[in-house]
Amino acid sequence: MEKLQMQVIDYYNCGRQEYWLEQIKKSDWGAGQFLYELLSENKFKDTVGEKSKVLMLVNEDELISFCTYAEKDDIQPTELTPWIGFVYTFPQYRGHRYAGKLFQEIEKLAKAEKVQDIFISTNHTGLYEKYGCEFYQMMNDIDGEPSRVYRKHIN
Prior knowledge:
- By secondary structure, this protein is of the alpha+beta class.
- It has helices at 17-25, 30-40, 44-48, 99-112, and strands spanning 6-10, 53-59, 62-70, 83-89, 117-122, 134-140, 146-153.
């Protein structure tokens, strides 16, 4: 594979929302489809908070990975904020820790906002620990299902 010229872009500031929305739609994951619906129906910020962002790791016109940096996620109600959510890497790009590039960008945003901790709700074990996240506690999601909540402390 040739060297990728990757960059992280913000969905809301990229100027090509329709194009990237169609790329998000190609994800083979239910939560990715839900993100697509929220964005296409203009309900994303109403659902997860006005200051929330959709970050995308791209190589030219190829979407590699995406996630959200949001005030709210699927653990509600809670005082915990902000959240990394909707973390997805397309299958052909998995195993290279590309999501870590998105997490680095989120850490920069969090530092600028003087955020101490970022949270992630997941059913994965052993994935987010690679990125410095620690298990925080079990909490119920909006459907009442148990979810593992991880915390990433920002230095």
